[in-house]
Amino acid sequence: MNSMDRETKRQAIHFLVCMAALAVFLLLSRNWLLAITFSVLLVGSLLINMTVRDSKIHLVEWFVGEFEREGARLPGWGSACLATGVLILAAYMRQPAGLAAGLVVLGIGDGLSTLVGRRGSHMLPWNQKKTAEGTLAFFVGSLAAWVFIGPLSVPLAAVAALAESLDLGIDDNLVIPVVCTLVLSVI
Hints:
The protein is mostly helical. Helix content is 73%, strand content 4%. Strand 1 and strand 2 form a beta hairpin.
């Protein structure tokens, strides 16, 4: 049986986490989303701390082995950045439709950019680590935010795709929520 590679599994988890956050927001409330995300970050921070201090936690070791990128700063770094990105959106995005749209951009746009981009062959002139195919996939995937914000999804998708394509030295899961919040606060 052909198993998925680590990056594909990472992006599947990325998508599922963002869609679960969207479901919590839509079915329960922003407050529930804030509480759950903060709790996940708290527990995750404790687990990271224990792991860094040489505690052997089999579930954490398995999760890191299956889903963490090679060379991550800390075990669970990617998950922590994603949870922080969801928390940024939940805390600072005032418009409910904007929060939902931001979760779609983070979950679908960012996930597709990686899956498509790593198979692309046209490197961006301003960032040789990213491909035009990945940036286009980010833009197209982010247009699913149309469901929540209509035509505003086009400029949101364009600006977020551009921001994701830059080499800022900051995890995309932190950059994208900030960009979504700023763009939807301005337009």
